[in-house]
Amino acid sequence: MAVNVLFAAHEDRWREYRDVLADAIKAVGVDAVLQTEFDDPSVVDYVVFAPNGPAVDFSPFTRLKAVLSLWAGVEGIVSNTTIQVPLARMVDAGLTAGMVEWVTGHILRHHLGMDLHINGQDGVWRDYVPPLAQDRCVGILGLGALGQACATTLHGLGFNVCGWSRRAKSIPGIICESGQDGLKTVLQSSEIIVLLLPDTPDTENTLNAVRLSWMPNGAVIINPGRGPLIDDDALLAALDSGHIGHATLDVFRQEPLPPDHPYWAHPKVTVTPHIASETRPKTASEVIAENIRRGEAGEPFLHLVDRDAGY
Ligand code: NDP
Predict the structure, then answer these.
(1) Ligand 1 pocket, residue 98 CB under 6 Å
(2) What is the pLDDT of residues 96-120, one digit of tens each?
(3) Is the confidence at residue 54, as pLDDT, over 90?
(4) What stretch of H or E contains 25?
(5) Cβ atoms of residues 49 and 77 within 8 Å
(6) Among the four 32, 133, 140, 241, which has the fewest Cβ within 10 Å?
(7) How remote is the C-alpha of 67 from its chain's centroid?
(8) For residue 68, how many C-alpha atoms fall within 13 Å in the half-sphere facing its CB?
(9) According to the model, what pLDDT value does residue 120 have?
């Protein structure tokens, strides 16, 4: 019997995924009916979900085997108590590659002092020579699928890379810290810090006034993680005082960022509109298809969310 897969995400996503996801499910040998609606919710086996899609109450899906998120960040769904089945988040090679490129690009901008020349085409011969990567320490808060890939790439470019995660880790070439003392060590040594933590009750305001004060003078913050990781008032004060040199922010507590938000006009802030990286339909479909195959074969699902930890 065919498995029924409900695609519960914005209609733009459906246009991108309809064919490629159907092909990926077929390629793993599963016979599936893939639709955006089923008249009878009790026949649905899997829900492919994005938080901006229509499905919110999962209780009518009485036959459901798993909810498969199209997004890496699951803060919009993890506390949904109507989900009584495994919840998998997205770990997608295309999403990871995109994040590595975005983070590397923005780090190199600040590391090389590119703004000095891009903004300063005024006849002044500014002979600033940046340090080599080997003389610069970059910190990554969050050493998961994305943070680890960024850390390894930056290490490959020669940077001294330290990272921080909830549980202790060992990654070749990376100084790995955990716990509150570890956070202080990473912040104190990082001239450029990248936030790749999930949005959970524990990570809210990870960068508050006290922790910002631990960072070196002129440090740069790059946040492609989630808006609530930063206390915005504390960051604005640290930018105004000159203690923090620049903040490149891709994510915000309110998105789109309201036009009158002080970040837009701040000379030391770069705003990007939550575009650091996107789930890529081809590679993401392969991940979803593999999880459906596993569900049908009675094998453990990949990338399960730990509901207690919130990510
Ligand atoms: P993972 O779940 O793989 O990694 C999360 C990392 O954060 C892990 O290393 C985890 O530690 C660490 N962490 C979680 N809670 C804490 C805590 N309380 N203290 C210290 N460390 C903690 O997620 P991904 O790497 O896949 O994604 C990270 C985030 O990036 C997503 O949650 C999402 O918010 C954001 N994102 C943004 C995008 C954009 O376009 N801007 C695109 C995609 C994702 P441990 O290893 O011990 O579990």
Answers:
(1) no
(2) 999 999 999 999 999 999 999 988 7
(3) no
(4) helix 11-27
(5) yes
(6) 241
(7) 19
(8) 27
(9) 76
Tokens of 37: 């609606």
Contact between residue 164 and residue 186 where contact means Cβ atoms under 8 Å apart: yes
Query: How far apart (Å, rounded) are the C-alpha atoms in residues 117 and 56?
Result: 49
Q: How many CB atoms lie within 10 A of CB 279?
A: 23
Cβ 147 under 6 angstroms from ligand 1: yes
Residues 6+ apart with CB under 8 A from 63: 42, 43, 44, 45
Distance CA 247, CA 235 (A): 8
For residue 265, the CA-to-ligand 1 centroid distance in Å is 29
| CB of 265 closer than 8 Å to CB of 242 | no
What is d(CA 201, CA 212) in angstroms, rounded to the nearest whole number? 19
Output the six-digit token pair for 303. 């990338």
What is the set of domains in the chain, with CATH numbers?
3-92+279-297 (3.40.50.720), 93-271 (3.40.50.720)
